[in-house]
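As described in the Methods, two query proteins were run sequentially through the folding procedure within a single session, without resetting any intermediate state between them. The first query and its resulting structure tokens are shown here.
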Amino acid sequence: MAGKSEAVLVFPSTHHMLRAEALLKEGGFRVRLVPAPPQAGELCTTAVAVPSQEGRKAASLLEARGVLLKAVLFPEEAAAAIQGRFPVEAAEELAALPGLGGIVEKLTRQEALGRRDIVSLLGLEGEEGRLCRAAEALAGGLAGREAVPAFVLDLRGGAAGGRKAGKRQGKGQARDLERLRALAAEMASLGLAYLILDLGGGEGVPWSAEEFQEALRGEVVAVVHADKLPGHAGELVRGYGVRQVLLGRGGLRRAGPQELTDEILFLRDNRPGPVGSGNLVPLLSRGLEVGEEEGRAVRRVLAVLRLVLGEAFLPVPEALWRRGELCGGNLVILEGVTERLRQALREAEDILSTKGWSVKRVKSGRGGSAATR
């Protein structure tokens, strides 16, 4: 959930949220993207958190620049809006596991878990079922049992962009750009705001920064996923407006509880981007054998992340949600080709509905009609 010393700014659309983020960063504010409290009645899935003492100043700046605000929630109001009480069903699942009495008490009192607590949770091999059910109950209480979809655009086979992006000639480039524009329009019509660019081992995207920004029209939260850190990662953030660069996580099961705890504590203390799991949980199903040891490790880590971080966007790889498992995740990853976007979204909605969850669509555009489900 939002930090105890943070104010949460809620917006009526993704366009206004993204514009607010850019203006506040330009103004020197410390900002981070957080899930919008469901009880706030917003039509944008994402809110912006700033230090509480700067909340009113930030709101005044945004209003002066014509950004529409739905609400500004200060710590006490934000805590009430997200129903901070730890769910009974989550506590019961954890209480059934030996040696977790102290951890359950801390979670119930909304106290931060310590290093030893996190190591203990990560060491519960074979108990992924109870951990996942507890994490799902907590995620449902925080997010109103609504998951946000994120579409993966596969650029592994495309021409590398980087510093040379936008300089290619010929019809191929025009087709690529038109496809990006069409995808952005399709996402807007479906109420989708998160786009993950999968670069694989490549170095860039096949468009210039100007083309990319124009095609997305300031209405999409773009995240890059790559097998290794792109040499122009800084350019992707500064020029393309990418919010986060994530690296594929291999061999998760080979990392010990102490190493994983270090990474989880870093995420809790720094909140590095809109995908709250950072590089810890694989976004894609590529190479993930759900049901085997690697899959069990992913479920266990994802569940512990939810229990430790509270409110955050945590990704659910497609290989998990298609089995009806969320494990505390609330950012549903849709893989595949653009032509199957509507179908993949319908399939996610159908599967999540069997668990009492829904897929949250957003209001897109500067003042257009709502696209909420």
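Immediately afterward, the second query was submitted; its sequence and tokens are:
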Amino acid sequence: MDLRHKAGLGEARAATMQAVVLVVACDDDEASTSMLNALLKREVFTEGEHVESSPTYLKGRVRVWSRSGFHLDQDHLDRRWTDATGEAVEDVLFLSKHAAASGRPCLTVHPIGVPHLDPDETPPYGGQAGDAPPPSPRLAAFWRALQRHADDERIPEFEVSLEVTHHGPWQQGPAAFLEVGSTAATWTHAGAAEVWADVLLDVLRLELEGERAPSGPSHVPVLVTLGGGHYAPRGNAMAGHDGALLGHMLANHSLPFSRLEDGRVEGRWSHAVDAAIEATRAAHPGRTVVISFDRKSFRGWERRALSEHLEAKGIDVVDSAKHASMLRDA
């Protein structure tokens, strides 16, 4: 259904409307369904028109879209929402389960993309090979809100963590996944769903009133992290500071290096780094991007290649102390 006709939303009106934040749930995902139910139980949202035959819920500048299927094949949802409703989308937040062999109960948040893959590859878990959507500009805010629930009595067995950039789907606009992990035993955990409902209503409190959250001082840089493991240890520590802004995070496995016999360094690592930087800039227009990387996770020649590449691009490399001082100075 094209709601521009039913709701009287033409192109002229769409051009003047404030953009919306789109929260997406998929009914074949147990955790997603549980999180959606907890959110709707708060009776904050009113029911809207169906979009692509799927129910929607509305409040202020926030839209909740309950869709069929799974998240990883839901490409271009930002554009599809705009095409159907005339509303521009500034951020897409996917409610999802997290699966891990460890089986540890956890609540996680992460940006999406597969920038390290060759464009000719077929991504095994969705996305567009060799690229990454902009990370949600609210990524650090969600992380800090989640940290405030680390000792919540409703989730005593759960850990909270960022995850590095990975998997699909693909879209042009900013996105993040908000997840409950890591097995069927915890995907429908009531306390985990309630905590996520609290976090969403907290982080989006101004948007729910139709307002726009302040972006913070313009000279606060956006942090991109390189190296380390899947659960983003550098991002966890550095983005936990008040006022910090966080972009893409690439683990070592998303930075494929190779060295030729003559010492030249090749591989998809430089493309992945460039794609992460450019996507992060797109999410935070006009802001400076800084890089922090886990030196111990790289071999010496890899560190040198990274440092030379970033220097050539004019990107500052900062450690945790320098990053903290930049936030204080701001």
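Residues 269-283 form the longest helix (15 residues). We note this only descriptively and draw no conclusion about the first query from it.
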